[in-house]
Amino acid sequence: MEFFVQVLFTMAVIFALARLGSIVFGKLGLPGLIGEILIGILIANIAGGAFMEDVLDITLHGEWSDTYNVIYSLAELGVIFLLFSVGLETKVKDLLGSGKAAMLCAVLGVVLPFVAGAALIIGLGGYDMNCAMFMGAAMVATSVGITARIIKDMRLMDVKESRIIIAAAVIDDVLGMVVLAIVEGMSESAGGINMVDLAIIIIKAVAFVLIAIGIAKYIVPRIYDFMDARNRRIKAQGKSPYTFNKLIFAIIVCLFMAYLAEYIGLAAIIGAFLAGMMFAEHAWEWGLETKAESITSFLISFFFVNVGLQVDISSLTSMDTVILIGAVIVLAMLTKYIGCGLGAKLGDRTIDKSSFSIIGVGMMPRGEVGIIIASIGLNAGVLSGDLYTVVVMMSVLTTIIAPPILSSLFKRKYKDEYAIMPEDEL
Hints:
Layout: H1 2-27, H2 32-47, H3 49-55, H4 66-88, H5 92-96, H6 100-124, H7 129-140, H8 144-153, H9 160-188, H10 195-236, H11 246-263, H12 268-279, H13 283-286, H14 288-309, H15 319-347, H16 353-362, H17 367-379, H18 385-413
Helix pairs in contact: 1-2, 1-4, 1-14, 2-14, 4-12, 4-14, 6-7, 6-9, 6-15, 7-9, 7-17, 8-9, 8-18, 9-10, 9-16, 10-12, 11-12, 15-16, 15-18, 16-18, 17-18
């Protein structure tokens, strides 16, 4: 009974502090997730053991406390539902119908950061290939939610650059999941990996993604049409059709796909993302996005606070770590800028210098996705605490730096959108 009471108290305190941090940063015009991460950092590094261990009963070092095991489980569920929610916004027809510019933008925006991140870690020495691969994977991720919010607020969703960014981000998500699946599979291979093992991992990851896309494109529409026809027949008979809770069904599929991904050696979030994609076509009609968002909003706070709990700010006193953070941030921004801008230019020759810059900067924020990959690497024992801190700082700072630059670039190119016309004057 005492344990249950302690868990409830710890959950209440963490969730309340997380929401407070999110609200404060939201008021400052910054993503709320940064405030939630900062709360975790403050609990672990500023408040100290007296508050974290004695009051919250959270022990991270050595054997985890039972209370922390519960918080960790909530955090893992949070990230599963976060990726499920992202999947609900990723329609297969948008993915398959993306133009050449968006496709090349996404592909080069994945290849360049991955190669640069992995090469940096290999060049430093002292780290194995799995560590380099996880760093590369963390550099790949793009958090389009940040960019989409800016575009939406500026009422520029219909301009060419915005369409390319949004479409490329959809492809980027899928490619990122494939890269993570391969990296995760490699890290699970004991005693190193050979070309045969690597080929099996790649085939397994690609097959899992393609099968899920096939189900979303061909099977789910048929199930929907069957249920719709059945309901019409029942209504024609003057009876009330049976309605089932579609959210419950979607959650069952989400959890099963997450389990299946883990079972075959991939990350649970890959299964959750693909499960969301299966329902994306009818997510709005069934009200899944709004309902799933309520679950995600509660659980994801525990994930971001847990991210902060893992950050050891004492490592920032090391000049080597600070320099590495700076190098990783520069690489992360440059490779996305060059890769995405160049890809869009190769796919659409009408892309000028200003459009090149808008697309490149729009794909820079790493946000939550890079942090998720870093957490997987840390929990798998692949990333060290220092490198984990580096990735978290890179994800947070690119998320803060990119939005004002993007806003300025948009305003410079689309001046007429912000000009005060005579009819606007009072």
